[in-house]
């Protein structure tokens, strides 16, 4: 503790002790930061859920790339298995600033408020549904909170390579003070950029310097990446001949470097000769296996082809065998059925040991056949009966319909005739009174003309009716 | 949006310790979408059937309930012909302390205990009230027809 006054000033509050750690680690920025500390103290207390140390300088730190890391306590990865009793039933993670309801069910404070805000008027406990309210949340005893803060977690910067495992409550301290992968301000006073803590020394690594190979301006921080990547001139030392080769030529060099140790080209056919490229040519000319290689390759191909053909045939064979099995099964069932029908109850073990029993069984079989046939015949009979009934029913319906039409016609005719007759009677009465013979004759004519078609119609309709009846 | 830790944990647990008679597998391209299979409970008209369901976890899950629907046709007074399920915990009685496995268990229990007094499919519920034996017979037929391996 280099500066006990600062420590005293900020003691007693975990969030500010976190800050004080940061300040101690960065002596140069101390005086500047101190004024911000008090401002941020309140801010940090409000951000217990999502501790997000804002930069004490004017630079924005929206991303983790530039400035301090933004991390969420809910996304921490736990290094050890956490007891199920310490898991929030809502987020299924260890409690973060837990709160209890009257029914003694415990949740993360944030989970609980969110859950209650999603409920309508009657707030209930998410676990037991007992009535509750948003303001009946109670904080848990300090000892439990401390135990939770002691759970071991992985550093939030594990993705950058930090392997530290630390108590959950110390994550901010770790990031602010120790983590070599956290970005810190450049030690140089003129520079306002960031660099990983493990690379921070005395001097600024951001100042552009000409690359020793190509002369392009690169910061010291990126020099290595530049020489391995975008620099066109940087030389690479060949691992085999230890000569330095320009990067652009390196590809060609490794395929032609005389010092590279190679295996014989026929190594896969059994030649275990290895030598430098300069000697290899000599060996290849004398190696018998190299000469045989094309033939062996050809043979290998053929073998492969045969293996494939064999596999195909085996599959085919398997299919056939399966088919054969099913055929055998069906045959067996048929045979057993035959056995069952032909055997008599008295001698089921030896069905054919006497001609009599054989005859009896034949007789039985025939009887069964007959009964089956008779059943089929009766079935057919019933079928034809119903078919006949169906067709005759239709004919009956037709006849009934025609009868109805006929009756209607009859009624109409009667009505016509009666009206006509009434007309004639009236005319006769009129003629009698006046004594005009002409009128009578005329009316007689009219009567006969109107009466004449009547019998014929009747006959026709009778005929039709008879026809209909005959059909029935 | 990144998948919340809770969903990842639930999925891992569903795969590692599956509930007997229930399987839920997330889609590879959408980890919020699950293919669910529920075996019909024993001594119910759905015994022997395997029912397919789809389950979707909405954006604000677990604050809002998962959306679940039967894909296999089923004759049940609380499940309509679109596969929608009438179950209180899927609607008003949802609680974030519930989870996928408890909800699927509730659905399996609903198959074992149809409730025609709170119907979703009115015609089925009517049938259930008027003639329980015939309704159960139809449910068995449907199970055999739509929810067995032979059903296409």
Automatic annotation (TrEMBL), chain A:
InterPro entries: Znf-RING_euk, Znf_RING, Znf_RING/FYVE/PHD, Znf_RING_CS, Znf_TRAF. Residues 88-129 form the RING-type domain. It comes from the Eukaryota. The keyword Zinc-finger applies. Residues 436-472 are annotated as: Disordered. Transmembrane segments: none annotated. Residues 462-472 have a biased composition (Gly residues). PANTHER family: TNF RECEPTOR ASSOCIATED FACTOR, TNF RECEPTOR-ASSOCIATED FACTOR 4. This is Uncharacterized protein. The lineage of its organism: Eukaryota, Fungi, Dikarya, Ascomycota, Pezizomycotina.
From TrEMBL, chain B:
Pfam families: UQ_con. The keyword Transferase applies. Keywords: ATP-binding, Nucleotide-binding, Transferase, Ubl conjugation pathway. One of its GO terms (molecular function) is ubiquitin conjugating enzyme activity. The keyword Mitochondrion does not apply. It comes from the Eukaryota. InterPro entries: UBC, UBQ-conjugating_AS, UBQ-conjugating_enzyme/RWD. Belongs to the ubiquitin-conjugating enzyme family. This is E2 ubiquitin-conjugating enzyme. It comes from Gomphillus americanus.
């Amino acid at each position: 503790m280099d500066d006990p006054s600062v420590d005293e000033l900020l003691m007693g509050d975990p969030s500010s002790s976190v800050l004080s750690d940061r300040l101690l680690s960065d002596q140069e920025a101390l005086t500047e930061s101190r004024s911000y500390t008090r401002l941020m103290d309140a801010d940090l207390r409000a951000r217990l859920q999502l501790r997000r140390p804002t930069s004490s300088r004017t630079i924005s730190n929206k991303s983790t790339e530039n400035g301090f890391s933004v991390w969420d306590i809910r996304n921490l990865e736990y290094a050890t298995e956490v007891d199920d009793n310490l898991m929030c039933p809502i987020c299924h993670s260890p409690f973060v600033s837990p709160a209890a309801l009257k029914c003694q069910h415990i949740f993360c404070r944030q989970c609980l408020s969110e859950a209650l805000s999603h409920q309508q008027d009657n707030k209930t406990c998410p676990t037991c549904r007992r009535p509750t309210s948003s303001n009946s949340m109670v904080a848990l005893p300090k000892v439990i909170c401390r135990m939770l803060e002691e759970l071991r977690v992985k550093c939030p910067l594990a993705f950058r390579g930090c392997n530290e495992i630390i108590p959950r409550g110390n994550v901010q301290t770790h990031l602010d003070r120790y983590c070599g992968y956290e970005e810190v301000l450049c030690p140089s006073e003129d520079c306002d950029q960031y660099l990983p803590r493990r690379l921070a020394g005395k001097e600024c690594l951001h100042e552009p310097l000409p690359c020793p190979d190509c002369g392009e301006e690169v910061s010291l921080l990126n020099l290595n990446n530049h020489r391995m990547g975008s620099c066109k001139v940087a030389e690479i030392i060949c691992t085999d001949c230890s000569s330095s080769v320009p990067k652009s030529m390196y590809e060609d060099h490794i395929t032609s470097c005389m010092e590279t140790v190679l295996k014989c080209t026929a190594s896969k056919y059994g030649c275990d000769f290895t030598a430098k490229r300069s000697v290899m040519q000599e060996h290849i000319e004398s190696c018998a296996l190299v000469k045989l290689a094309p033939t062996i390759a050809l043979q290998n191909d053929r073998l492969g082809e045969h293996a494939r053909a064999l596999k195909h045939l085996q599959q085919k064979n398997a299919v056939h065998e399966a088919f054969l099995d099913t055929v055998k099964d069906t045959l067996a069932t048929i045979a057993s059925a035959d056995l069952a029908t032909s055997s008599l109850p008295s001698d089921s073990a030896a069905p054919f040991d006497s001609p009599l029993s054989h005859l009896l069984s034949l007789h039985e079989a025939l009887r069964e056949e007959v009964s089956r046939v008779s059943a089929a015949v009766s079935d057919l009979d019933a079928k034809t009966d119903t078919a006949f009934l169906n067709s005759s029913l239709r004919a009956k319906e037709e006849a009934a319909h025609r009868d109805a039409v006929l009756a209607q016609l009859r009624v109409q005719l009667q009505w016509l005739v009666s009206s006509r007759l009434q007309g004639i009677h009236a005319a006769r009465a009129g003629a009698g009174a006046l004594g005009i013979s002409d009128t009578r004759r005329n009316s007689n004519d009219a009567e006969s003309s109107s009466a004449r078609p009547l019998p014929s119609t009747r006959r026709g309709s009778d005929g039709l009716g008879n026809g209909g009846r005959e059909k029935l | 949006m990144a998948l919340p830790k809770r969903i990842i944990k639930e999925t891992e647990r569903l795969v590692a310790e599956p509930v007997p008679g229930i399987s839920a597998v997330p889609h590879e391209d959408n980890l919020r979408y699950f293919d669910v299979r529920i075996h019909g409970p024993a001594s119910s008209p759905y015994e022997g059937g395997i029912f397919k369901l789809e389950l979707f976890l909405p954006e604000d899950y677990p604050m809002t309930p998962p959306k679940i629907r039967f894909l296999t046709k089923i004759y049940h007074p609380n499940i309509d012909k679109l596969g929608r399920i009438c179950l209180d915990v899927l609607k008003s009685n949802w609680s974030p302390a519930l989870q996928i496995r408890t909800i699927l268990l509730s659905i399996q229990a609903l198959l074992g205990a149809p409730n025609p007094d709170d119907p979703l499919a009115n015609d089925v519920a009517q049938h259930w009230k008027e003639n329980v034996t015939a309704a159960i017979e139809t449910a068995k037929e449907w199970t055999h027809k739509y929810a067995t391996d032979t059903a296409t």
